[in-house]
Request: fold
Amino acid sequence: MLETRMADPKPPFTASEQRDKLVWAEIAKERAAFDAKTARLKALRLAKEAEAPPPAPKPARAKAKKR
Reply:
């Protein structure tokens, strides 16, 4: 039995390690989907801004009088 343990230096993955890998993989998928959505929306916003004329400047406000 001692010889068997010496032949395999790495212990098998535990259930928690397998769960951790699945969770991290799911997080990576969600991040990729979010980044893709953000890039798509940014491209749409930039295209819309390029089509629209620039906004008119706001009129200057009169300063309030001190009492």
About this structure: The helical segments are 2-7, 15-51.
